[in-house]
Amino acid sequence: MSAQRAELIAVGSELLEPWRTDTNGSYLTRVLGERGIAVRFRTVVGDTSEDLQEAFRVALGRSDLIVATGGLGPTIDDLTREAVAGLLGLPLLPDEAIARRIEERFRRLGREMPPQNRRQAMVPRGAEALPNRLGTAPGLWMTSGGVRIVLLPGVPEEMRQMTEASVLPRLGASGERFAHRIIKIAGLAESEVDRRLDDVARRAAPVAWTILAGPGQVEIHLRERVREGEPPEGIERIDGEIAAVLGAHVAARDEETIEEVAGRLLAGLGATLATAESLTGGGIAERLTRTPGASRYFRGGVVAYGDEAKGAVLGVAAETLRARGAVSRETALEMAHGARRLFTSTWALAATGYAGPVGGGPGRPPGRVILGLVGPGVESARDVNLPGSRRAVRVRSCRLALDMLRRALLDAETSL
Amino acid sequence: MSAQRAELIAVGSELLEPWRTDTNGSYLTRVLGERGIAVRFRTVVGDTSEDLQEAFRVALGRSDLIVATGGLGPTIDDLTREAVAGLLGLPLLPDEAIARRIEERFRRLGREMPPQNRRQAMVPRGAEALPNRLGTAPGLWMTSGGVRIVLLPGVPEEMRQMTEASVLPRLGASGERFAHRIIKIAGLAESEVDRRLDDVARRAAPVAWTILAGPGQVEIHLRERVREGEPPEGIERIDGEIAAVLGAHVAARDEETIEEVAGRLLAGLGATLATAESLTGGGIAERLTRTPGASRYFRGGVVAYGDEAKGAVLGVAAETLRARGAVSRETALEMAHGARRLFTSTWALAATGYAGPVGGGPGRPPGRVILGLVGPGVESARDVNLPGSRRAVRVRSCRLALDMLRRALLDAETSL
Q1: C-alpha span between A24 and A6 (Å, rounded)
Q2: Which of A335, B78, B208, B319 pairs as cysteine with A350 (C-beta 3.0–4.6 A)?
Q3: pLDDT at A2 over 50
Q4: Which residues of chain B register pLDDT less than 70?
Q5: How far is CA A162 from CA A130, A131, B363, in A?
Q6: Based on the number of CB atoms within 10 Å of its own CB, is A379 exposed (0-12), middle (13-18) or buried (19 or more)?
C-alpha cells in the first residue's frame, strides 16, 4: 500500500482575495482520494517568486507528491515555472515541439502567437511536458529527491482534463480508493455525541473518524481505504455500531437531509404536511420544498409573522395570545391545528419564538423557541432555549422542527 | 505602514474533504486586508498533532501574524490548543474563570457541562484567553519570538464575533487600510453589465475592479488602498460613475441585500407586505425575515404549493386555475391579491412557476416563472424563463421577485 504524503499548492494572488476560493483543490482532493492518496496540506500562495519558492521548499521537505495549480500562463504574473526551476537549480530550456503546438493553436484561432507565449514552451531540464488540449500552457511533471512535482494550469477545465489524461495515469493504479460516509445526528450536542460514541471512536481505526458540529446538527465523517471493487467493511461496521448506540438520533446519511428523510417517511405513510411559522419566517417550508416531488406530501404553509396573522389567518384564539403569549405551547399548538385545518393535511408543524437579537421582554430571552406538532393521535409541543445569533437560532429551529417531525413519523411508521 | 506578513491556518480534516471549503479564511483575509494586513499564505491542515505542529512550525518561520481557526472544541479531534502549546514548549494550565463561564453557559441552556468541555478551559502559560460570547471555546492570543499567534474556533459566527470584539482591536492601527465596496446589480446579465461598464472599468485604476456573477445577481467588487481616516475617493468616484450608467439596476451595496433595501423602502413609506409563494416554497418570506425588525413591514405569507391551497387558502378562482393554469399571469395576480386580503397588507408579492427538474408538461418548461405584484395603484405581472438547476431557479426567482418589489417601491417613493 502506497502511503503517499500529498500536498496541494494553489498559486494566484486572486485566490488570496476574500471572495475567491480554490475549487481546483477540492477536485484534486477528490480524485487523488479516489486513488487512495490522502492530501495532508493545502496551501494558497500569491504570485511572488519569494512566496512561491517558500511554499515549494516547505512542501519538498514534507511530502512525496506536490500538485500545484496556476501561474503557468504567459503574463508577467505567471511565475510558477521559473520559481520551481530556480528553487531546484534547473535551467529552463526551450522545447521546440511545444512552441510549435502553441503557434499552431493560435493559427487555428486565426491569430498570431504573442511573443510572451514563448515562455510557455520553456521546460526545466529533466521535466516532462504534459499536453494541454484545451489551452496553451502545458503542464510539467518532474521529480526531485524522490518527490514527484506536478505543475498544472489554474483554469479549471484545463487542469481537470490534464489531470485525467496525464496525471492520474502516471500516478499508477494503486488498486485502492477512499470510501466516505457522513452520518448526520440530530438532537444531541457535540460533546454528548462524543461522550456516547467514545468507545466506537476508539475502535474506529483504520477508519478515519472526524466529528463536526453545525447549528443543530452534528456530523461524523468516516473515511476508509479500501481495495478497488470491494465494499467499505470498516465503515459498515462502524455505521452499525453508531446506529446501535444512538438509535433515532441518527437522522440521515451522506448527502441526504433531515427534510428529505421526513419527506420520504411522509410519502411512505401516504400522509401530507402543512406548516405554520413565525420566527423561522418560511424557512421550514423552504427546506421541505427543496426536494423535487415535495408536492406529493407538502400541502403548504403560513408564515404568520405578527400576532394579527396568527389570529386572523391561523385562527389562534385572541384569549390564548393574551393570556399565554405568542411564544407559548398553547399558541404553537393552535398554530399547528390552524395550518392542518387550512391545508387539510394529515400533519402540521409549527414554530414560534424569539429569533433575536432581542427577545420579547423580561423572561422572554432571544433563542426561546416553541415547536408544535399535530398529527393522527399526536399533539406535542417542545420548548427550547437556543444559543447563537438570529441566523443560528432560525437555522436550529428549522432543523429541530424537522427532526421533531421525523421522529414522530418514525414512531407512526413503527406503530403501523 | 507596517508590512505585516500574515498567514492563515485552517484546521480540520473535514476541510481536506472535497466537499468543504474554508470560508473563515475568506472572511479573515477581508477584515485583515481592511486594516492593511495582507495575507501571504493560507494553509489547510487536518486534525493530527504532527501535521498541525508542522503547519505552525513553518508559519512561525516566515510570518509575523498567524491566525488559525478550528480545533478548539471539546472532542478528542480538537488538537490545536495542545499542538501549539506543545510546539512552543508551554504547559497548559486550567483557567477557573473560563471553566466557570462554560459551566454557566451550559446551566443557562438547562444542561450540565460534560467533563470533556473542561479541556476548553486550559490555557497555554502566558497566553491570553479571548472570550467567546456565542460558544464555549475561548480563543487564545499569544506571542512567540515576536510572532503573534491567534487561535480561534472554527464555527464561523463565533470566529467572526471574536475577531471583531477581540482580535482586530488588538492588532492596532497600521496607518493604512484597504477600503472595499461591493456594488450589487440586479436585472442585467454579466456580459451586459460588462459591456455597459467597459469605459468605467478601464478608468478604475488604482482601484482594483473584479466582476462576479451569481444566480440572478452580478456584483462589482472594488478595492482601494487608503490612508487611515481618509475616505476612499477612488471608490466614491467609480461608484458614482456606475450609478450614472446603470441607474436603478444598482440594487444594493456591500453587505446590504435586496430584501433589506426593499424593507427599508417599505418602512420609509409606512407600508406593509405579504407574500404568496408556490415554486419558491417560502424562500421570499424567509429572506425578508432574516432582517431584525422585519415585523414592522412584513405581515406574513402563504406557501401555496399545490393548486388546492392556491384556491382554498389564497382564493384563486377555480376557473382561473382551469382556464389559465397555475403558472399564469392571472394566477400570479390572484395569489398576490389573496395574500394582500388575508394579511391586510399594503403590498403583496407572488411567485408561481416550475422549479424543475421537470416542468408542467408540453409548453411548460422548468424555469418558467411568473411573478405578481399588487400595491397602491400597482398591479403587475412578470413572466421569465430562468436557466439552471432547481436550486438556481428558486434562488433567481426569489431575487427577481424582491427586485421587482424594490423597483416598484422606488417608483412609489419618487411619486410621493
Answers
A1: 15
A2: A335
A3: no
A4: 1-3, 18-19, 173-174
A5: 7, 7, 41
A6: exposed
Neighbour count for residue B32 (Cβ, 10 Å):
24
Residue A413's alpha-carbon distances to A379, A407, A409, in angstroms, are 17, 10, 6
Looking at the complex, does the CB of residue B288 fall below 8 Å from at least one CB of chain A? yes
**Chain A partners of B393 at a C-beta cutoff of 8 Å?**
none
Domains and CATH numbers, chain B: 6-171 (3.40.980.10), 176-253 (3.30.70.2860), 258-414 (3.90.950.20)
**Cβ separation B281–A303 shorter than 8 A:** no
Q: What is the DSSP string of B357-416?
A: SS-SSTT--TTEEEEEEEETTEEEEEEEE--S-HHHHHHHHHHHHHHHHHHHHHHHHHT-
For the ranges A93-102, A165-174, B38-47, B326-335, the maximum mean pLDDT occurs at B326-335
Give chain A's mean pLDDT.
Answer: 92
Q: Cα separation of B276 and B371, whole Å?
A: 10
| Stated pTM of the model | 0.78
Write out residues 249-278 of B within 8 Å (CB-CB) of A. 275, 277
Q: Is the four-CA dihedral B310, B315, B318, B319 of positive or negative sign?
A: negative
pLDDT tens-digit readout, A110-119: 778 888 888 8
Closest residue of chain B to A356, computed from CA coordinates: B292
d(CA A47, CA B24): 22
Contact between residue A258 and residue A182 where contact means Cβ atoms under 8 Å apart? no
Q: Is the ipTM reported for this complex over the cut 0.85? A: no
